[in-house]
Design a protein that fits this description.
The complex is a heterodimer of chains A (about 230) and B (about 500).
Chain A lengths: L7 H22 L3 H25 L4 H27 L12 H19 L8 H23 L3 H23 L4 H29 L9 H8 L2
Helix pairs in contact in A: 1-2, 1-5, 1-6, 2-3, 2-6, 3-6, 3-7, 4-5, 5-6, 6-7
Chain B lengths: L1 H16 L6 H29 L2 E3 L2 E3 L1 H31 L4 H23 L3 H19 L5 H35 L9 H6 L6 H19 L7 H8 L2 H30 L7 H20 L6 H22 L1 H33 L10 H4 L1 H14 L6 H16 L1 H27 L14 H15 L3 H15 L5
Antiparallel strand pairs in B: 1-2
Helix pairs in contact in B: 1-2, 1-4, 2-3, 2-4, 3-4, 3-10, 3-13, 3-19, 4-5, 4-10, 5-6, 5-10, 6-8, 6-9, 8-10, 8-11, 9-10, 9-12, 10-12, 10-13, 11-12, 11-17, 12-13, 13-15, 13-16, 13-18, 13-19, 15-17, 15-18, 16-17, 16-18
Classes of the chains: A mainly alpha (about 230), B mainly alpha (about 500).
């Protein structure tokens, strides 16, 4: 791949994609809930900016709509809802530190390399730029999964889930100039409903186990173990 | 087209109207009415398809593969609504659910029906994804309807696992769209299934192969394939029983339908390469693993609804295996199995609903002597389990027999494993069934008012399908077999 062949705007898109990946790593390392929510909001903002740039370079006016949707949803609405819930449940000072930070960061780096390896065969298409962005978005998806696996707090798990969605969106926008508008609206609607439901669930979980530590959601698994 | 619109949008209307209905009695009947309207629409649609063969337009596509699933979905929806009306009224009177939450229940019941019918009928792979995700969102609050700590836990698990799975499926869908954009001149057609199917040979094989891995893992989570099955027994055991019937009978089918639709595209794209059967092999592996693991887990269960949840995993594994095996005979068996399993399993869950009502618990150890307390429920459970275990003359015997024959032709040594798995599942089920049906009656156990009409209808149909498949259905299944495997069986 030769970066100098690309226009400035396209290069800027690459930089933003890299920034999204970087923010995923900081999400992975961030222990404090509120700071995590802020990073997630930044990630949404960067994603919206990247979408806007792609809309400007390509001839796809509907991408401006998705850029606006992303900004409204991922950078403002969802972080605001999470913020309000955290305050309502009095978790502002709560931290959810990683058990083995060095190990988890290494695993994150390994996931990035793995994503490049998975996408490598697509090189045959001679679209090096797209291959790069696809790898990054797959890495963001997998890092989101890693966040969900390593964290104990319901709130951080949801942030991991939503950042996975960011990775998917990046893939859709960068590789295919966005999905058709109907689909994109549908996806945005689903994400919004999911966010609302997550909020409802926080309340239910904190009511039923008096905390948001999902490690304590283990009644059903212990039931299975007794079952012999 | 009118018939199609009635089928799909009657439940949506219901989902929007039912939250406003305060009277529980009226809401129950309205719920039933919307389901009946949808079923009437689907039967009308089926009559049209019988004349026309297939119907495409306005973003919908109906062919032999999905029409029978549409009718099945609407039918099971109606019978479950018939069961749900008195059952949920009883639950509400017991005080386990408030009247306000019952409004949520009815609305989400219809919302769930809508998303499933939309997923089956849409011609757009993106909309398919949105609808399947919508089905998760609609059911997640139903699983936690009782608000016990266990049900909240089950719903959280269901939400997170299926959410992650379905996100991976979206990544796969993006890759398919990407491949389509490289191959097709008009890129806006890139998610239209009919266009992709016609042009499958031109899609980039490597991209499609990678996409299929994501799609199989993603939709496979919803099918309940091992090792992504952990949500399924929890959601089945903690949710209200009508919802367990819908999840097992319908949702799993819809997810499998999505996998098979994508497999048709991937097979087309890979046909000319040296890895033509890779999608099939992946499905066979996952299917067989699910089939065996779930069969083993049947032994250890203590909760009756969990046990039948595992039985669903087992059967979904068998179907995935059948579609993975490919070829007309196995595909025909898989299609038939989707139909008979769905009818039988929802009948079983309805019966289990009555049985837990009689015993006052879901624990297998405390459900005893059903056949003497209430013969209708006892016999219903007995016959349902006999059918699901694959005894003749029920329909599941037919489909499993066809699958065994197909396996014997293509992979003879796998037949042994299949037979072993079937025997294991049979023993696991009957070990628990015998005391529940025949055991000693606990003191003070009283019969309850039970409407066994849905169960009799379902089991009657499964019985008939085991004796003879009606000509029109056989023709549909054969056409669907042709679409999926490339050659006719009959």
């Amino acid at each position: 791949m030769n970066l100098t062949h690309l226009t400035l705007l396209e290069q800027a898109v690459f930089v933003l994609a890299a920034l999204v990946l970087f923010l995923s790593f900081s999400l992975l390392a961030q222990a404090r809930l509120l700071a995590g929510i802020h990073i997630f909001a930044w990630q949404g903002g960067v994603l919206a900016l990247a979408t806007g740039l792609i809309a400007a370079t390509s001839d796809e006016p509907h991408l401006f709509i998705s850029a606006a949707l992303t900004f409204g949803l991922k950078a403002l609405t969802i972080p605001w809802m999470l913020h309000r819930l955290v305050r309502r449940l009095e978790l502002e000072r709560h931290a959810d530190p990683l058990q083995h930070p060095a190990l988890v960061m290494m695993a994150g780096a390994a996931l990035v390399i793995f994503s490049y390896w998975v996408v490598a065969p697509i090189e045959q298409l001679e679209l090096a730029g797209i291959r790069n962005i696809l790898s990054i978005s797959l890495a963001v998806v997998l890092l989101g999964l890693l966040i969900m696996v390593t964290r104990r707090q319901a709130v951080t798990q949801v942030i991991g889930f939503m950042s996975m969605e960011n990775g998917l969106f990046l893939a859709a926008v960068a590789a295919t100039q966005g999905m058709p508008l109907v689909v994109e609206l549908g996806i945005a609607f689903d994400v919004l409903v999911a966010a609302v439901l997550f909020g409802v669930f926080f309340l239910h979980i904190s009511e039923s186990i008096d905390s948001l530590n999902v490690d304590r959601l283990n009644r059903l698994s212990t039931r299975e173990d007794d079952g012999a | 087209m009118t018939a199609l619109l009635i089928t799909v949008f009657a439940p949506l209307t219901g989902a929007l109207i039912l939250p406003l209905v305060r009277s529980l009695r009226l809401a129950g009947w309205l719920n039933l009415g919307f389901c009946a309207t949808s079923l009437a629409g689907s039967v009308w649609l089926a009559l049209q398809i019988m004349d026309a063969g297939e119907l495409t337009g306005n973003g919908f596509h109906i062919d032999a593969f999905n029409i029978y699933l549409v009718v099945l979905t609407a039918f099971v929806g109606l019978t479950t609504a018939i069961f749900s009306r008195p059952y949920m009224t009883h639950i509400c009177r017991e005080g386990r659910v408030s009247a306000r939450r019952m409004r949520l229940y009815h609305s989400m019941f219809q919302g769930f029906m809508f998303t499933m019918l939309l997923a089956l009928t849409t011609n757009n792979l993106g909309v398919l994804w949105v609808a399947v995700e919508g089905a998760t969102l609609a059911t997640v609050l139903l699983v936690s309807l009782y608000r016990t700590p266990e049900s909240v836990e089950a719903a959280w698990k269901y939400f997170i696992l299926c959410g992650v799975g379905i996100a991976l499926a979206l990544f796969g869908t993006v890759l398919v769209y990407f491949a389509a954009q490289q191959a097709l001149t008009d890129s806006s057609e890139g998610l239209r299934w009919t266009t992709l199917y016609a042009e499958a040979g031109r899609l980039h094989p490597m991209v499609m192969a990678i996409a299929f891995v994501f799609l199989l893992v993603g939709y496979g989570t919803k099918v309940g394939l091992v090792p992504l099955h952990h949500w399924l027994p929890d959601a089945h055991s903690e949710g209200p029983t009508p919802i367990s019937a819908l999840l097992s009978g319908l949702l799993l089918n819809v997810a499998l339908y999505a996998v098979v639709r994508f497999k048709m595209l991937v097979d087309g794209a890979l046909a000319a390469t040296d890895k033509a059967a890779i999608a099939g092999h992946l499905m066979m592996g996952f299917g067989l693993l699910s089939f065996l693991v779930a069969g083993l887990f049947l032994y250890r269960q203590r909760d009756i609804k969990r046990m039948f949840g595992y039985s669903s995993i087992e059967h979904m594994g068998l179907m995935t295996f059948a579609f993975g095996l490919g070829g007309p005979l196995a595909t025909f068996a898989g299609l038939l199995h989707m139909l008979v399993h769905s009818l039988t399993k929802s009948a079983i869950f309805i019966t289990v609903g009555h049985a837990t009502h009689i015993a006052g618990t879901q624990s297998i150890d405390h459900i005893r002597g059903l056949i003497r307390t209430q013969p209708a429920v006892g016999w219903g459970l007995l016959l349902g389990v006999v059918a699901i275990a694959g005894f003749p003359p029920f329909g599941i015997f037919t489909s499993e027999f066809l699958l065994l024959m197909a396996t014997m032709q293509r992979w003879p040594w796998l037949t042994m494993i299949l037979v072993l798995g079937l025997v294991m599942a049979f023993a696991g089920l009957f070990r628990h069934l015998h005391p529940m049906v025949y055991g000693k009656i606990p003191e003070g156990q009283q019969p309850v008012t039970a409407n066994m009409l849905p169960v009799m209808l379902h089991l009657g149909l499964v019985f008939c399908l085991g004796i003879a498949i009606p000509a029109f259905l056989a023709r549909w299944l054969d056409q669907a077999t042709f679409l999926i495997s490339g050659s006719h069986l009959l």
